[in-house]
Amino acid sequence: MVQIKAKIITNSKLSGNYWHLEFESGPIAQHAVPGQFVNIKVAPGVAPLLRRPLSIHAVKARRVKVIYEVIGQGTQILSTRKPGEFLDILGPLGKGFDCRHLVKPQAAKNILIAGGLGVAPLVFLAEKLKSSNPLILIGAGSKKQLLCLAEFKALGCSVKLATDDGSVGFCGRVTDLLKIVLEQTKPLGLFSCGPYPMLKSVAQIAKDYKINAQLSLEEHMACGMGACLGCVVETKAGYKTVCKDGPVFSSEELVW
Q1: Which residue of 65, 171, 230, 240 has the smallest Cβ count within 10 Å?
Q2: For the chain, which residues make up each domain, given as ranges?
Q3: What would the pLDDT profile of 15-47 be if each residue is shown by its tens digit?
């Protein structure tokens, strides 16, 4: 982990309330692994007090990308920051996905399951797994809320969509689409990020089908380093912090 003043390269709206931020940081780019995050101080003053934790979306050379949703004061301020300005950033933080033994060309696919903004860290993961041609399942409320399709396709990934309103792809939850897919193939592993109810469902499906699953939890964080204990979750080995012991956990170790 480093604390660094990182220069903003781009900070622009994707669609709706979703924004794309790219900054320059050689140390963070060099050491980051999929599933880790950065903790950003959005303004130079004392307010807002807490940093904003954002999943690492992509890394290219010395540049790091994140996607965020403007939903409160902190992210609203972040959306006003301009290219050329500097952000105080801590990272890379947390434990990411372990995919070292799952990159096997011409073998069974890995399946990545995203819900909403949970798609953000899975692009970085898909880039690491692209030699195994992973299958990407993305769920959202409607077609307008889907993100990152072009990025996955540029990596050569197969993509299947699920929307609650049926505006595109499978009509229903992405976990129901996952069950259909698993009736046709058994993957090397499942990787997922999204809302808690979706992750709970993925964990149960992984148990039913006897498949290894790694889940990236979404949780409110403060320090980002495990000191404040504000983001603890219950596991079979006791309580652990999402920011330091996670955000990626094996589905089998979590108590739902």
Answers
A1: 171
A2: 2-93, 100-253
A3: 889 999 999 999 999 999 999 999 999 999 888
**Which class is 2-93 in CATH?**
mainly beta
| Residue 222: DSSP 8-state | S
Q: What is the CATH number of domain 100-253?
A: 3.40.50.80
Q: Contact, 44 vs 25, CB < 8 A?
A: no
**Can you read off the two tokens belonging to residue 98?**
């372990």
In which element (H, E) is residue 13 found?
Answer: strand 2-15
pLDDT digits (tens, 9 = 90+) for 188-235: 899 999 999 999 999 999 999 999 999 999 888 989 999 999 999 999
Q: Are 2-93 and 100-253 the same fold in CATH?
A: no
The amino acid at 116: G
Using a 10 angstrom Cβ sphere, with 0-12 exposed, 13-18 middle and 19 or more buried, the burial of residue 61 is exposed
Kindly state the tokens that stand for 161. Answer: 């969509």
Phi, psi of 220 (to 5 degrees): -70, 130
